[in-house]
Amino acid sequence: MAGAATEGKPSPALPLATLIGRELRGDGSERPLVRYGHSGFAKRGEDYFLVKPDCLRVPGDPSSAFSVFAVFDGHNGVSAAVFSKEKLLEHVMSAVPRGISREDWLQALPRALVAGFVKTDIDFQRKGETSGTTATLVVVDGFTVTVASVGDSRCILDTQGGEVSLLTVDHRLEENVEERERVTASGGEVSRLNLCGGQEVGPLRCWPGGLCLSRSIGDTDVGEFIVPIPHVKQVKLPNTGGRLIIASDGIWDALSSEAAAQSCRGLPAELAAKLVVKQALKTSGLKDDTTCVVVDIIPSDHCSTPPALSPKKNQNKLKSLIFGRRSHSSVGKLSKSASLGSVEEIFEEGSAMLEERLGRNFPSKANLPPFRCAVCQVDQEPFNGLLTDDVGGCCSAPSTPWGGPYLCSDCRKKKDAMEGKRSSHSTTCR
């Protein structure tokens, strides 16, 4: 399946500080075209994806258009992946203040993504199901790309200069020392699977539950120290645009980021996604669900396919896709002379501490009644003037002072459990 979204010219707005310098100078004031395609093969049937190219911040205003793409790799069932596909974007958008400018929207988006991921996790865990999912959510607004992710579904960026950038962080316990230390400090145990006789096998896992990931949505049986707080990165593409490849670990276990990008350069997005999947299967076989979404962000004055390769090479690659062969000359890096700019990093944060992600210096006006929870967006009146959750419940002992925005009782308990300040209700192994 493939499609395209054409965004209209944005209404005049201040630039996003100095980091949207090209828009300030007038370069790239035209919204780019967004083309996309997806492909995949199922082994367990637990991968899901989301494609929403026609979102509007302001209903009826095409200048507020943005696009959303996501990949969810479920485990221990499909419930968490399906729930996240249906609810995650809604929860993110509910955390964005209404009536704000594009600049303010882009600045508010990283914080809203954190709130949306945490709310999705809380709501799913209330269902009492034990499945979990990775989540990689990509928001494209003009040439600005914002990526939030938990788990090991990855998003890479390929630009005209042939430079491949990783926009996500893999939350695998085997490979991420900081995450291992955080999980153990919060009360989890990290070790390999112990067979009879004491032999340890396989990758590092978190116990209880035996999950290989340190961050996910769901997984009520593993423990609250497996957090849904995403790594978030926001970048500004050069006015030559770029290509995003978003895929589950069935792709990345078989292909490096560079190999995936090189395998499909010059092809339109829908064929590029098919070729990435085909190359992954050729490399390692169908060992896991494989899902790939390719998104091309194309300057409006260019043709629909990124000019990464000459027309002749593009035709050769198309033939090789159809007939099962690849031209060796078609997988080289792009010419450096084609690069007319560089990727500008606007924001990056991966802390698992909710206070750091929601902001310590929250405006005081947010603490005026009614109190709106920064995560679940529910207005609540204070109980006897208290702003914390130290009212009722079996786990109501005061925790450390909270320097961030107001959190309701449930979200405060969630925060404390994720930080190991309260015992998790999740004790079942699987």
UniProtKB/TrEMBL annotation:
Gene Ontology molecular function, alphabetical: metal ion binding; protein serine/threonine phosphatase activity
Cofactor(s) listed: Mg(2+); Mn(2+)
Listed InterPro entries: PP2C, PPM-type-like_dom_sf, PPM-type_phosphatase-like_dom
SMART domains: PP2C_SIG, PP2Cc
Record field: transmembrane: none
Enzyme class label: hydrolase
Keyword line: Hydrolase, Magnesium, Manganese, Metal-binding, Protein phosphatase
Reactions it catalyzes: O-phospho-L-seryl-[protein] + H2O = L-seryl-[protein] + phosphate; O-phospho-L-threonyl-[protein] + H2O = L-threonyl-[protein] + phosphate
Residue stretches making up the PPM-type phosphatase domain: 26-297
A Pfam family reported for this protein in Swiss-Prot or TrEMBL: PP2C
Gene3D superfamilies assigned to the protein according to its UniProt record, in alphabetical order: PPM-type phosphatase domain
EC number(s) from the headed UniProt entry: 3.1.3.16
Family: Belongs to the PP2C family.
Protein name: protein-serine/threonine phosphatase
Organism whose genome encodes this protein: Panicum hallii var. hallii
Organism lineage string: Eukaryota, Viridiplantae, Streptophyta, Embryophyta, Tracheophyta
